Prior knowledge:
mainly alpha
Amino acid sequence: MFITVVLFLVGFLLITKGADIFINCTVEIGRKTNISEIILGATIVSFATTLPEFTVSLLASIDGHTTMSLGNAVGSIICNTGLALGLVVFLSPFNVDKKMFFSKSLLLIVSVIVLILLSLDGVITRGDSLLLIIILIFYMVNNYRSVVGKSDTKSRNIKNNTIKDISTKKGKNYRGFSVLEIVKILLLFATGLIMMIIGSQILIESGVRIASFLNIPQGIVSLTIIALGTSLPEIVSSITAIRKNHHEISVGNILGANILNIVSVIAISAIPNNIPILSQNRQLDIPFMILLILIVIIPTLKSNRLSRIQGILMLFTYFLYISILYFMYII
Length: 331
């Protein structure tokens, strides 16, 4: 047990340091390209931090554990929104870019509505996954246009204002980056991401062993520890972002990760095997997911700000959900 606890701490340290490197690279990209932080959070950060959920859910589906695929994705959305964003907003409320927040929120709402409609017949089929993948493609195209538009503006400014500075540097430049800078950022970015993924895996495995030692039921483990474990990159990267005063990376990361959990994680996981919708998913998991998303979106669209009250409500809703699970599985 001592070794397991040590591994648990090692995993935590890996994802913490990995997130620190990861966010520094993201901020550097934003500084050089003039891309807004909420776009960076919804693209680079969310795609990368959703990899653990994607891997766990896809492998679970391939192995025939299809209910775990849906539970992991929905549980991660609940954890991302209730715990990660709730904690971020509680610690440091902040204003948002209304236009970008609206576009990402709208796509998240559309994704949730489509998921609900597809689940009405009690199963997510391979055919259903195609519709979700279409939304994923739209999301990627939308993000690409946002990134390219901002980056092109920055590139024109660079050409007009800093031609002499650029010409004196060795090597070719791309959108304000030298070749060496691109290589350095890519290596650091990959290092931070790998550290977070490995750290999350160590944390999950050691957490499951600790839970087993404490006789915690497997149902609680899969819905809490695994969902929490696969959400750790989002949680730690978001907290690291606010610690470095880059708040919109946090909200962009969470909104983007939530969209991807639906249109990529669930969609791709439904291809090897159909995913059944359990009564618990319909009566508990999905309603709590919707409630948390509404707590985030509705007040923020009115005030252009994520407030501490929202953070408290998100945290309360998350722990209420965990408490209900506890009573369902243990009491």
